Amino acid sequence: MRDDLYEPDAYGRELLSSLMRAQAGVSLAVLLPAISLLILYPLLTVLLPRLATFSVLGLPLTLIILGGGIYPPLVLLGYLYVRRAERLEQRFVELLKEQ
Amino acid sequence: MTEPATIAAIATVTVITAVISARGVRIARTPADFMVAARQVPSFLNASAISGEYLSAASFLGIAGLAMLEGLGALWYAVGYAAGYLVLLVAVAAPLRRFGAYTIPDFAEGRLDSSVLRRAATGIVLIICAFYLLPQLKGAGLTLQVAFGGPQWIGVIVLGAIVTLGIASGGMKGITFVQAFQYWLKITALAIPALFLVMVLHHPPIGSVSSAAPHAFGQRTTIEFPQSEQLTVGRTVRVDAAGQVDGVSRHGGIALTRGVHSVHAGATLVFPAGAEAPRVESSPALTAQEWTSPLLHLGGAPDHPLAATYGILLATVLGAMGLPHILVRFYTNRDGQAARRTTAFVLLLLACFYVFPAIFAVLGRLEAPGLYTSGQTDSVVLVLPRLASAGILGTLLGALVAAGAFAAFLSTSSGLLISMSGALSHDIMGRGVRAFRTSAIAIGVVMTAIGIFVANISINVLVGWAFAIAASTFCPLLLLGIWWRRLTWVGALGGLALGGATSSIAVILTMVGIGKTGWPAVLLGEPAIWTVPLAFLTMVSLSLATPRALPNDVTQKLLALHLPERVRPPAGRRTEMIPSAAVPVGRTTPP
């Protein structure tokens, strides 16, 4: 079974592209929310200039977001990605062993 | 102003680095030992090491300084530096480790079977590292200047000499353990003074940065003018002057009347507590509203801030993966999964670190308006602890920050110099330890000489350019090389050449002062916004036009990139495209 993987026949190529598609899917599921997070805040403050003048607990909103608030979602997304990617690989390995 | 505590702190950092490195070298003597050891570095330690090498002068001094100068929007740099690791995590880390590529030129040659492409990649490694090394040298100059006075070039030469000699003698290599130590030193050296300042310093409420302009000196403040300035004084104030003011040489108390005054380079003015800080022509005087704006204002210019912000985000987020001295570290992960875990930890460690520059920026704006007047906001992290407490505590905190800053320059510049000397000796000067040493000395001397002349450019801006070039060259090479089957060496070469040329030229034009306003300022100052798409487009279209240049074994190469280790063929069959034995000693960063 394993040797098949290194033969560039139709089966090997099919397997490879399905693996790559699945992995890219997991990556994009994390990347898209992260990118929209980064793109959205500057855009919102241009569309709604008053947003940038808000204060929460006496601190400017921009300071809260750029000075720390934006990081927990990014770290969380990173954590989710690691978990999902490992699960995907586990399933892939099991699938190959069944054959 | 000579400070034994600061000298001791900086010397200690240097000696500890040298000692741990020397021990590590003894443990791993041959490339084979080193490879075995390399695979056994636990993820968290490895992540500390990557963060230690990554957090440079830009992160330690530059972000706080730029945010103080140009407003909170400059914190996007920090966000981008950290978010870059999320992209690295989801798109690059595991495949690159599985492929077995050790450097970007290795990856380029292994993936696309072209030695021409390899040499082009080597050239770009040298360019990126050079742009990245200059701000480290400037940071060292600034640190020694704040601690001891005197001109900035002294620190530039000191750091240049330490790093060059250290690497040429083989005594200062980027051992994992040293780099990990550097991360924890750096975060401690920022966190303790920051928390202390927030709790102890009698500063106005943090929230007041969003209302009043803060320009009043909290205490008696001495300002040295490194260059001639035009001061705009809002309210007549009595100062102690030394040097030329309004064309007359002064020594002693004078009254600065309301209006404009010229101060000659080298002059010193001492302002009393409570005096309103004068505005200067060379640095922007942002209103509170401008300062708290979440968009980046280049040099305080209000033109197209949204485009500038996106330009910086694109450069930093995509540039992180293309930094030559960082990529080497991913090889020390056991396998692809370990590489992912390591990268996720790096993201966490960076996120923890980047809270502190923001604190320094705010406190600097509230407490140290003199830095605006003297044009030295880049030194806010170094200066604040001394302002906060005049006694022994201030001295100790100042020494701690200086030590952390020096650790930042030391770790990043040695990593960069190793990458540069490795690339130069391996691909251009001929292999071997002797070529490596010659390269290290040559590059060290040249870079130090250039470093003396960049004193006027903000640290963070210089680093931002290194990222912009990396994002316009290696980012498309890595992303397309890993995820796109039809990439050819012709396409990759064209993309590297065009992306590298356009981004470098834009940066150099900005350095020499072309395009200071409007769209030219944004497009040349933040070139990533157009050079990155250009590089991607070139790579894709040229590759599609040259299908015959596709490697014969492209399927195997993609399998080597993406197949989990557990389903690899048994030993004896090729599992990595680049055999580890081919990695020569000297061009690498040992574990």
Q: Can you lay out the helices and strands and say which pair or pack?
A:
The complex is a heterodimer of chains A (99) and B (591).
Chain A: H1 2-5, H2 10-47, E1 55-56, E2 59-60, H3 61-69, H4 71-98
Antiparallel strand pairs in A: 1-2
Chain B: H1 4-27, H2 31-38, H3 43-54, H4 57-70, H5 76-99, H6 104-112, H7 115-148, H8 153-168, H9 176-200, E1 221-224, E2 229-233, E3 237-245, E4 248-256, E5 259-263, E6 268-271, E7 279-280, H10 288-291, H11 305-319, H12 324-330, H13 336-353, H14 355-367, H15 370-374, H16 380-388, H17 392-429, H18 433-451, H19 459-483, H20 489-511, H21 518-525, H22 528-545, H23 554-562
Helix pairs in contact in B: 1-17, 3-9, 3-12, 3-13, 4-7, 4-14, 4-19, 5-11, 5-13, 5-19, 5-23, 6-7, 6-19, 7-8, 7-17, 7-18, 7-19, 7-20, 8-17, 8-18, 9-14, 9-16, 9-17, 11-19, 11-22, 14-16, 16-17, 17-18, 19-20, 19-22, 20-21, 20-22
Protein architecture, described:
The complex is a heterodimer of chains A (99) and B (591). Chain A is mainly alpha-helical and 99 residues long. Helices cover 80% and strands 4% of the residues of chain A. Chain A is built from four helices and two strands. The radius of gyration of chain A is 21 Å and the shape is elongated. Chain B has 591 residues and is of the alpha+beta class. In chain B, helix 4 packs across helix 19, helix 5 packs parallel to helix 11 and helix 5 runs antiparallel to helix 13. The two termini of chain B are 40 Å apart. Chain B has a four-stranded antiparallel sheet. A three-stranded antiparallel sheet of chain B has the order 5-2-7. The longest helix of chain B has 38 residues. Chain B is built from 23 helices and seven strands. Classes of the chains: A mainly alpha (99), B alpha+beta (591). At the A-B interface, helix 1, helix 2, strand 2, helix 3 and helix 4 of A face helix 5, helix 11, helix 13, helix 14 and helix 23 of B.
